[in-house]
Write a structure and sequence with these properties.
This protein is mainly alpha-helical. It is about 50% helix and about 10% strand. The protein has 4 helices and 2 strands; from the N terminus they run αααββα. A two-stranded antiparallel sheet has the order 1-2. α2 packs across α3. The relative contact order is 0.11.
């Protein structure tokens, strides 16, 4: 298991993924365990996680809060020549 996990970590680092992201993925892997092939997905989650503006951190940790679209105050300035 450790050998397989080491190979996955090496492959992620060889792809140019930051060591901090790999460490965050490894921390999550230690929490949930499972198969080493899950590590790239956990590292991806760590890379996409945002520290602020999360909608439901307990349910879906990567989903940002919804921000509704609003009309600009001055449409001519906002869209310039696109109108």
């Amino acid at each position: 298991m450790l050998g397989h996990l080491g190979k996955v970590v090496k492959a992620l680092l060889d792809e140019g993924i930051a060591a901090d992201h790999v460490r965050a993925g490894l921390r999550r892997f230690a929490e949930i365990q499972g198969h080493p092939s899950r590590l790239p997905s956990l590292v991806n989650d760590a890379m996409n996680a945002r520290s602020t503006g999360l909608a439901r951190p307990g349910i879906r940790p990567n989903v940002p809060a919804h921000q509704a679209w609003t009309n600009p105050v001055d449409a001519a300035v906002a869209y310039a020549e696109e109108l």
